[in-house]
Amino acid sequence: MIVLGIPMYNFNIPSTLSSYFDHIARAGITFRYTANGPEGLLQNKKAVVFITRGGSYGSDHPQTAYVRQFLGFLGIEDVEFVHAEGLAIDEASRAAALESAREQIARLGRQAD
């Protein structure tokens, strides 16, 4: 299982995570080229991605799509996202977002049992 914790920086992932993605995307190691195009070599892996955002952007935000696409490129199709959004709006929004994230994490824990 791969676990990623990702804040939103300027509508995208942090530059350090982008650099990490650059380092792990290696032809012949994490993917390979075939006659039908690239094929991810990390099949049958699960990823859980925790995304935090100060505002509210929704789960279909391009940041989420990019992370899903990158992991899929490596062959990781089983991806669960936990979003905690609205953390910088006000205390009520922050509290509600964190409670929702805790509930999602608890649900993921029950699924793992």
Largest sheet: 3 strands, parallel
Low-confidence stretches: none
Give the N-to-C terminal Cα separation: 14 Å
Oligomer kind? single chain
InterPro entries: Flavodoxin_fold (IPR003680), Flavoprotein-like_sf (IPR029039), FMN-dep_NADH:Q_OxRdtase_AzoR1 (IPR050104)
Protein name: FMN-dependent NADH-azoreductase
Pfam families: Flavodoxin_2 (PF02525)
Organism: Microbulbifer aestuariivivens
Polypeptide structure, described:
With 113 residues, this protein is an alpha/beta fold. It has one domain: 3-Layer(aba) Sandwich (Rossmann fold). Helices cover 39% and strands 25% of the residues. It contains three helices and five strands. The strands form two sheets. A three-stranded parallel β-sheet has the order 1-4-5, with helices on both faces. Strands 2-3 form a two-stranded antiparallel ribbon. It is globular, with a radius of gyration of 16 Å.
Concise structural overview:
With about 110 residues, the chain is an alpha/beta fold. About 40% of the residues lie in helices and about 25% in strands.
Furnish the topology, listing elements before pairings.
Elements: E1 2-7, H1 15-24, E2 31-34, E3 37-40, E4 46-52, H2 62-73, E5 78-84, H3 91-112
List keywords for this structure.
113 residues, Rossmann fold, 3-stranded parallel sheet, two-stranded antiparallel sheet, globular, FMN-dependent NADH-azoreductase, Flavodoxin_fold, FMN-dep_NADH:Q_OxRdtase_AzoR1, Flavoprotein-like_sf
